[in-house]
């Protein structure tokens, strides 16, 4: 599979059964998850993926809170791109400003899929409000046609991947970040090409590979542990 090709059909069709396996592995990995590095109380804002809400990130946020972080939902409803965060992402920017004002310190952003692209945009536009960015299966580094979900993106968001504004946001998100960043990705992702979910080799953005699908990836034990280790400063580039 080349960098600009979507995942093959067999990976796409396996997403639902692999999501069930992910949930099962989550239940069987509680001891490992409880042993994850402890948090330092920093604020963490979790951004959901395309079409999802804060309900889908509740498990991850509860776990981060138990580790000792202050994890927040984005409180913007269902992620429908610009329809949700507003033109020029102003609503998301206001949410970030509010958390910065409430906590008195820069916020770590964890973005899942489309949420990761939004997290990278915020890090570029409001660097002073962002401590670190962690993306999970976020296709920020390549064309939307290297995914199997670009038509769903257009339908849910009302945006067209060829629109100049959409292309400009994509280019901005792909640029190296001015804050520490980590990209968690999978070469067996059935929705998005894993190669566009990380920066090129040699960049300052750490890349951590896991073996899993796209649906529910933020509840994959390996992804959760990678997040905890990154927050604790223990993750190494792979």
TrEMBL record:
Keywords in alphabetical order: Hydrolase
A single GO molecular function term of this UniProt record: hydrolase activity
UniProt xrefs under InterPro entries: AB_hydrolase_fold
Gene3D superfamilies given in the database record: alpha/beta hydrolase
Protein name: Alpha/beta hydrolase
Species for this entry: Stakelama tenebrarum
